[in-house]
Design a protein that fits this description.
The protein is α/β, with parallel strands linked by helices. The protein has helices spanning 2-17, 23-30, 34-46, 63-70, 73-84, 124-127, 152-158, 184-195, 234-242, and strands spanning 50-53, 56-59, 92-95, 114-118, 133-137, 141-143, 148-150, 163-168, 172-174, 178-181, 197-203, 215-218, 225-228, 246-249.
């Protein structure tokens, strides 16, 4: 099974570099049958990573997103699972775009009556086959490099909702500067989601702690819970806890 997953990942990476590759060329490259390659392409399409086309496939993700998805994947998966554990049945939540936050719905199988408001297109494959989830996609300008909708239209739509919890991504977080983003548009969306929620939960792997992004989102005092991984710098964790942040390492 692991070998098959690795091949599918390699197929996706190859098609990002050379989308013109055909099934027969992929078959020769991986030394497997064309039937096997077609099965892999079908699986990637079902997961939302690929659009099938005659003789091959076209990746749906920008290469930048795919690269960020692969980084710290084990840590991101644990963080997303811990975040999902905080969502109960009949709960209303907001989830910002991000390669960690987009994994949350993957672990909501079995939940009932959960309403999700999001600006992320990256999480859609994980909600497509889950009847217990209702998703509202906040409209705006689509930015393929981050698989997100942003801008004034997104902010206006978010203002129409009030939820129990907002799950935010972060490009950097410190006790002194709080949580930050590499884009002002994303910072605006995160800030608005936090304002519309009773509780703010930030998801950030250890590589984000101690780093400052370009645009300020909110001070550390505005964060109720930070979910990170066990490699988080102890000194920064302690400083955040002194600011009143409930830091949880998974």
């Amino acid at each position: 099974m692991t070998k098959k997953r690795n091949r599918k990942q390699q197929i996706l990476e190859l098609l990002m570099e050379r989308p013109e590759l055909s099934v027969s060329e992929l078959s020769r490259h991986f030394h497997v049958s064309e039937v096997t390659i077609r099965s892999d392409l079908k699986g990637l399409e079902a997961q939302g990573y690929l659009l099938r086309q005659h003789g091959g496939g076209l990746p749906t993700l920008h290469a930048n997103v795919a690269e960020r998805q692969r980084a710290h994947i084990d840590e991101k998966t644990r963080i997303a699972r811990a975040a999902a554990d905080l969502i109960g049945d009949l709960e209303d939540v907001m989830i910002t775009a991000g390669t960690t936050t987009s994994l949350i719905p993957r672990f909501l199988v079995g939940r009932q009556g959960v309403n999700i408001v999001t600006n992320s297109t990256l999480l859609l494959p994980f909600v497509r086959h889950n009847p217990g989830l209702s998703v509202t996609l906040a409209g705006g300008e689509f930015r393929p490099m981050i698989e997100a909708l942003t801008g004034p239209a997104t902010i206006r739509e978010l203002e129409q909702f009030h939820v129990a919890k907002a799950f935010l991504g972060s490009d950097g977080i410190t006790a002194g500067k709080g949580t930050t983003a590499d884009s002002a548009d994303i910072a605006d969306v995160c800030r608005r989601m936090s304002q519309q929620a009773r509780q703010t939960i930030v998801l950030a792997d250890a590589s984000k702690l101690g780093r400052e992004g370009f645009a300020h989102i909110m001070p550390a005092s505005g964060i109720d819970i930070l979910i990170t991984d066990t490699a988080a710098p102890p000194a920064e964790v302690e400083r955040l806890r002194k600011k009143g942040v409930d830091v949880r390492m998974v």
